[in-house]
Amino acid sequence: MKLTHISASLVLLGAIAFGAASPIAVTPAYGASVSFTPTGSQLDQDAINDLEVNVGDTIDVSFILDTSGLTANLQSLEILSQPDLTELLNLDVFRTDADIAAFSDFTGSPVENPPLGIPTVLFQRSDSIGVSPNSTLEIVRATYEVLPEFKNDGLPDLAVTVTSAIDANGIDVTSLFQPASQSLDVQPAPVPETTSLLGFLGLAALGTSSLLKNFSKRV
Is the pTM of this model over 0.70? Predict the structure, then answer.
């Protein structure tokens, strides 16, 4: 793979982290893509989708390869994966049978000097046949546990970026993967406001007192 592919992709990851790539962060996929669920939703003002969680929650993540729009089999695919392991504990991760059948060659290697210091891994897949156009398959499943250190910092806690895609004709089809990247930020679920809770308890107390008075008058 050309070095420029990794460099450009690392720049893209950094741009997403700082909110400069909002179209990429929230645009739905209409062509080829590598995406994951849950997708989260926009809960604040930054560019990254959010997922409300609590400490100790587990998140089951499914990574999907979609080759819609390609005109020849996808034979080579390279993906940057960026989980923030200071906020998410990796309990389990594995390639699916469909992924193993589609790509006989698979490697993973850490990226030096990743953006924001978040561990980043480059995963490379290839096969002499590969995946036919207009196919959808789950390639990876993972389970993460939310750590006590997690916070709403506007930075990606989970991100994937397609850095290279080559079809059976030897054509670079990376640009057909749109959006090229997806990211997610886990953040604390809201807790009831103290004032609202006290108000509710006060109303409940008044209601109970009134009920007791009415009951005593009838006895």
Answer: yes
